[in-house]
Design goal:
This protein is mainly α. It is about 35% helix and about 5% strand. The protein is built from five helices and two strands, in the order E-H-H-H-E-H-H. The protein starts with a strand and ends with a helix.
Length: about 120
Amino acid sequence: MTPVCSPRLDIQTLADIRRHTLLRSYRADEWPAWFAQTGELCPPLTGPILDSSIGLADVAAEGFGIALLPVAMFERQLLSGRLIRPVETTVTLGSYWLTVPKDRRITTASQTLLDWLRNVVADH
C-alpha cells in the first residue's frame, strides 16, 4: 500500500501529505500503519471512508485527497499519470486468499481465475 493522488496536488514532503485530506477505506489501521512505517505520527483521520479501492482511486484522481492503495492494482492509472505516488514509502498490510472447499471441485471459471492470478503474481 502506498499513497496515491492527483498530480494537481502539491506534495513535496511527508509534511505535505499531512495537510491534505486522507481518504480512508473501511480498514482503520491502514494510515496509522503507513505513518508508522515512515516513523511519523499519524494525523487525526477525518477524511471520508469508502468501501472500494476503485472508488478511493477515482476520488483521489479527481484531487479530493490522498488514497492509500496497492500499487499493482492501479499500475495503469499510475502509468497514464492520472494518479501519482507523491512518496515511495509502502507498507504491507496483509494478503488476499482464494479458497476452495475441499468437498467441492474447482470450476473452470475458478481455475481460469487461479491461473490468471498465478501469472500476475509471477510477473511481480
